[in-house]
């Protein structure tokens, strides 16, 4: 089985209550090959929720306590929830012996190789989201919707 960012299957777990449906990924989902998860929901955040970005770093920095995950006004700190969501995604992966995940590119949780830069302006930097980083560090192969 393959883990997948739930929003790519059309599940409305995105911060604004919408999804990031990808028809090729939905096909795999409908064949029963994918386990959908939303790390931000697994961390306890509601949907809809205000967007968050990693400030001054990437997912590795967050896991090492060197960067935080804040809202645009930098008043709400959801670092703990993002880390909890990543840990829960890893627990599910281990329980189901998952070796591969398809994650939503550029998200502060799911992004792999690219994430938003923390300015809430749409600018992109190199790096992984918190969940993508934790899964990758634990030997799970990460693909994104851009590989399909
Ligand atoms: S945390 Fe991941 S699965 Fe959840 S909405 Fe964001 S990109 Fe999609």
How would you portray this structure in words?
It contains five helices and eight strands. It has 148 residues and is of the alpha/beta class. It has one domain. The protein has a four-stranded parallel beta sheet with strand order 2-1-5-8, with helices on both faces. A two-stranded antiparallel sheet has the order 3-4. The protein has a two-stranded antiparallel ribbon with strand order 6-7. Helix 4 runs parallel beside helix 5. The longest helix is centred in the middle third of the chain and has 17 residues, at 79-95. The model has no long low-confidence stretch (mean pLDDT 97).
Hey, roughly how much beta strand do the residues contain? 15-25%
Number of DSSP helical runs: 5
How far is it from the N-terminal to the C-terminal residue, by CA? 17 Å
Task: Look at the structure and give the mean pLDDT.
Answer: 97
User: Strand order within the widest sheet?
Assistant: 2-1-5-8
Strand element count: 8
The H-and-E topology, N to C, reads as EHEHEHEHEEEHE
Ions, cofactors and other bound molecules: iron/sulfur cluster
- Indicate how many domains the architecture comprises: 1
Q: Radius of gyration from the CA trace? A: 14 Å
Label the overall shape: globular
Main beta sheet strand tally, sense and closure: 4 strands, parallel
Q: What percent of the residues sit in helical stretches (DSSP H or I)? A: 25-40%
Low-confidence stretches: none
Name the structural class.
Answer: alpha/beta
């Amino acid at each position: 089985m393959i883990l997948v960012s739930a929003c790519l299957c059309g599940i409305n777990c995105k911060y604004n209550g919408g999804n990031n449906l990808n028809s090729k990924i939905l096909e795999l989902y409908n064949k029963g090959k994918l386990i959908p998860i939303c790390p931000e929901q697994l961390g306890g955040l509601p949907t809809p929720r205000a967007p968050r970005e990693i400030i001054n770093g990437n997912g590795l920095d967050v896991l090492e306590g060197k960067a935080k995950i804040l809202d645009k006004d930098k008043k709400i700190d959801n670092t703990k929830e993002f880390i909890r969501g990543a840990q829960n995604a890893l627990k599910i992966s281990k329980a189901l012996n998952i070796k591969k995940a398809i994650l939503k590119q550029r998200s502060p949780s799911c992004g792999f190789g690219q994430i938003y830069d923390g300015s809430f302006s749409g600018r992109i930097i190199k790096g992984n989201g918190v969940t993508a980083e934790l899964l990758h560090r634990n030997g799970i192969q990460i693909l994104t919707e851009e590989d399909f």
